Amino acid sequence: MAANTYAPSGFHEVRLWPGSAPNFAINGRQLPYNYGSNIAYGDPVYLTTSGVLALYVVAGTSIDGIAYGVDYFDPNNILSGGFHPAWLQPTLTSGTLVTVKTQTDPNMVFACQANGTALTATAIGQNIDIKTSSSGTPVTTSGISQCGLDAANVHTTATLPFRIVGIFGVTPGFSPNLPCINSSYVGTNDNQWLAVTMNTSDITTRTGQA
C-alpha cells in the first residue's frame, strides 16, 4: 500500500473528548535542573516517584501529559528569556527551578502520526505505544518533537500509554485538515495520523505512581 511521508511532530492538542474546544490550560510540573535527557515540544512525559517529571520512553507505564515548553532562567544565556520550547540539557546552577508546561487533561484528544502499516476501524478502542527512539529528539532549530506512534504495537494491553479514538481522514469527526498534517495525506495509506487520548493518565489510573 502507498505510504504517507513519515514526518512525526509529536502530540498536538485537537479537542476535548466530550466535544468541546480545548482551552489550552496547562499545569506546571517540576523538572530537575540537571535532568539528563532532551524533552521536545510535544513529547510525552511521566511523573516519577520523586514527584518530578521525566521523558516517557517505549514500554513505560503511566503518562502525566504532553510537554509544551519549559520555563527556567539561564544566567549563561540571558537573551533567551524564561521560556524555551525544548529542554536541551543546559548547564544550570544547582537548585534552579525548572517548570515544564504540561497538558495533563485525561480528556484531551491528541493528533500524532503513526509509523507502519495502515490501521482500520478495528484498531479504534485499542491501545498503542510510541515509536522506538522517537521521543527526546527535538528538531534542532525549533525544539519540536519528532515523536510518533508505533502502528505495529497496537494491542488491548492495559499498560500501553495511549488509546486510539480515531483515524484522521477515515473516522467521522476527525478531518485531516490540521496544520500538522501534510496536504498530500491520505487517511487509508500507511503512516496514518491517529487521534489518541492518554490511556494510562496518572490522574485517572487506580494505582498510584510507582
Explain what the structure shows:
The chain is an all-beta fold. The chain folds into 2 domains: 102 residues, no CATH class; 77 residues, no CATH class. The protein is built from no helices and 12 strands. Strand 3 and strand 4 form a beta hairpin. 38% of the residues are buried. The mean pLDDT is 91.
Topology:
Layout: E1 12-16, E2 27-31, E3 44-47, E4 53-55, E5 65-71, E6 83-84, E7 98-103, E8 108-115, E9 127-130, E10 149-155, E11 162-167, E12 193-198
Parallel strand pairs: 8-10
Antiparallel strand pairs: 1-8, 2-7, 3-4, 3-5, 5-6, 5-7, 8-12, 9-10, 9-11, 11-12
| Overall mean pLDDT | 91
Query: Can you write the helix and strand succession as a string?
Result: EEEEEEEEEEEE
Count of DSSP helices? 0
User: Given the helix and strand composition, which structural class is it?
Assistant: mainly beta
Query: How many DSSP E strands?
Result: 12
What are the segments in which pLDDT stays under 50 over at least 5 consecutive residues?
none
Q: What number of structural domains do the residues give?
A: 2
Query: Given the C-alpha coordinates, what overall shape results?
Result: globular
Record keyword descriptors for this entry:
5-stranded mixed beta barrel, mainly beta, 6-stranded antiparallel sheet, 12 strands
Brief write-up:
By secondary structure, this protein is mainly β. The chain has no helices and twelve strands.
